[in-house]
Design brief:
The complex is a heterodimer of chains A (289) and B (316). Chain A has 289 residues and is mainly α. Chain A has helices at residues 18-46, 66-73, 76-107, 113-123, 128-140, 154-157, 164-176, 180-187, 192-203, 205-220, 224-229, 238-241, 254-273, 275-288. Classes of the chains: A mainly alpha (289), B mainly alpha (316).
Chain lengths: 289, 316
């Protein structure tokens, strides 16, 4: 493949002399080491027999599963299970709520449509961090129904069920789907629910991938909500538990490293498996909004 | 909202038993039915947003004017809580730290993101690999990021980062444990996690730059630097505008990184608005003052968000 100097802003692809190639290898290597290096160190050190308390290493030696065994003794599997319940339930709810709302926003004309869009946009300015203090009161006594969600995984699942980003990405996508299919289904006597389920939803599969992978990484990354909801360690999600596993007199850092690795892997695996959808969502979310 | 949809739903049930074509002829009934369906499909999202976004927001605004006293009844204090937020030394320190952090972290990550994007632009397979590797911090849970960096920053001479600094004759630094270096250390972690995200957005912007302009500038004899300055950067200006404001909004609410890395210490040197509000509201239970801080932060976020919307309008 020949690259031209005008293919990219710097035209680096066209410089293939030995010095240029060497410089490029060094630079690319440095980028990989700086950004992926710390995570690789975590991967390697989690399997080392006695991870050095002061220094992580990239060199695999004295490999063992001992850290994971101790971590399991310290309930790490319970935390992992909690994390999966929260991410599974939260994502299912979030995707269902998003496609449902998007169908109304993309396909229906009704008074108040613009107001609803504005409200959904404004929720993006109201993250859990900023609302933490009043949110903790609401979680303890949900308005109207007066349910206390503190101490239950439902308190980490229900609030993430509606996410403005997912709804807006889905709405934009549904607007692009030609409306003719639905009209012919409607003439055949299909109702809204039927059209939504068997005509619109199957056509939305690419966008479902986008909101699925974004929802997954977002819910997996949740910290504030579990922090507000959990009132003892049996409800901890894995990220929340890391802080309490920081040091252990028997194995030093081993437990923390093993648990941190388990908290790292699902999001990395999901990202690599669905990279194309992730990048599509990234650019549409940030540039188009 | 739910109360207004209820009658529409009752009407819907009656209309929907008729044949669809009859309903279409009776335009108004069909329209009302369609509105009802729309609200029905929107209801789950709106109910969740109402309960967990708008009610907390309204409660924060309300509580910010009271001294909240459980069981004793709240006492109206007017603007006193706001006065305290804007004059108390701890809050002023936190506001200053938040601004410093927002400015340096935003500037640093956009700058590093730009360098990375220029370096890693192109369709070659090995570039795709390097970009993917560099992007991993963005999808790593923030709690993991914080724990890994706590270890990397181990403040002894043989700590991981200190060892690397030692190779080039620097350090050792105390990093998170010293007032002098804690803020810089926290900012560095923020940049490490944010820069690859900015890189991807800038790369998307670079892909949209008209290649004919590159050709034309080459024909005119402009070198790479001149081309960068006169063609690439102007084309990227709207991307920068949005990245800056989005990153600034994110920096204002920064909480988890700091909570886990330093929890505001040592000696308040990394205390930001959110760590202080969290401590006052949820640990000391002074809900009124914490709410006033929340409202101040909300207003700052809204102002910046309005700027995003304006920036996008101008571009469209």
């Amino acid at each position: 493949m020949t690259m031209r100097q005008t293919d990219t802003a710097l035209g680096l692809g066209a410089r293939n002399g030995p010095v240029a190639v060497l410089i490029k290898i060094v630079l690319y290597g440095a980028v990989v080491m700086v950004f992926a290096g710390p995570l690789l160190m975590l991967l390697v050190s989690a399997f080392r027999k006695v991870p050095n308390a002061t220094r992580l290493s990239l060199i695999p030696s004295d490999l063992t599963l001992h850290n994971f065994a101790v971590a399991i003794d310290r309930d790490v599997l319970l935390y992992l299970m909690n994390s999966f319940i929260v991410v599974g339930g939260g994502l299912l709810l979030q995707v269902a709520v998003s496609v449902s709302a998007a169908y109304a926003l993309a396909r229906k004309q009704f008074p108040g449509l613009r107001l609803v869009l504005l409200l959904i946009l404004s929720t993006m300015m109201l993250p859990e961090e900023i609302l933490a203090v009043p949110l903790s009161l609401v979680l303890a006594d949900v308005p109207v129904v007066h349910v206390n969600l503190i101490g239950s995984l439902a308190g980490m699942i229900i609030p993430v069920g509606a996410w403005g980003f997912s709804i807006l990405v889905m709405t934009e996508f549904m607007k692009e789907i030609p409306v003719e299919l639905e009209e012919s289904a409607r003439l055949d006597g299909a109702g809204d629910l039927r059209i939504f389920w068997s005509v619109v939803l199957p056509l939305c599969r690419p966008a479902l991938g986008v909101i699925g992978i974004f929802g997954f990484t977002n819910i997996w990354d949740q910290y504030v909500l579990p922090l507000l909801v959990a009132n003892n360690s049996s409800q901890f999600t894995l990220p929340l538990a890391l802080r309490t596993l920081r040091s252990d007199e028997n194995v030093g850092l081993g437990v923390l490293l093993a648990a941190a690795l388990l908290a790292l892997l699902p999001s990395i695996v999901a990202f690599i498996a669905m990279q194309r959808q992730f990048m599509n969502g990234l650019t549409s979310g940030a540039i188009k909004g | 909202m739910t109360s207004t949809t209820a009658p529409a739903r009752v009407g819907t049930a009656a209309v929907s038993t008729r044949p669809v074509r009859a309903a279409r002829r009776r335009f108004s009934a069909w329209t009302v039915r369609s509105w009802g369906v729309a609200w029905l499909f929107l209801a789950p999202a709106l109910i969740i947003f109402a309960a967990f976004k708008f009610v907390p927001m309204v409660r924060a605004i309300n509580m910010s004017f009271f001294e909240v006293r459980p069981y004793l009844g709240d006492r109206w204090v007017g603007w006193d809580n706001y006065h305290q937020v804007l004059t108390d030394p701890a809050f002023i320190n936190a506001i200053q730290n938040t601004v410093v952090l927002a400015v340096l972290q935003t500037g640093g990550s956009v700058l590093l993101g730009l360098v990375l994007a220029l370096l890693l632009e192109g369709g070659a397979r090995h570039l795709w690999f390097v970009r993917t590797a560099a992007f991993l911090p963005v999808v790593t849970a923030i709690a993991v990021v914080a724990e890994v960096w706590r270890i990397l920053y181990f403040p002894a001479a043989d700590g991981t980062v200190n060892s690397i600094l030692g190779w080039i004759g620097l350090g050792p630094s105390q990093f998170l444990s010293s007032e002098d270096s804690s803020m810089a250390s926290v900012i560095a972690v923020g940049i490490w996690r944010q820069a690859p995200y900015d890189m991807m957005i800038i790369l998307a912007g670079l892909a949209g730059v008209n290649r004919d302009l590159y050709e034309a500038s080459a024909v005119d004899g402009a070198g790479t630097l001149r081309r960068l300055w006169h063609v690439t950067f102007p084309a990227l200006r709207p991307v920068f505008a949005i990245l800056f404001i989005l990153a600034a909004i994110r920096s204002l609410r920064i909480f988890v990184e700091i909570y886990l890395l330093t929890n505001g210490g040592p000696n308040g040197s990394t205390d930001v608005m959110m760590t202080l509000i969290f401590r006052i509201g949820l640990e000391r239970n002074e809900l009124g003052i914490a709410s006033a801080g929340t409202v101040v932060l909300l207003l700052a976020t809204m102002t910046l968000t309005a700027a995003v919307i304006l920036a996008r309008r101008r571009r469209a």
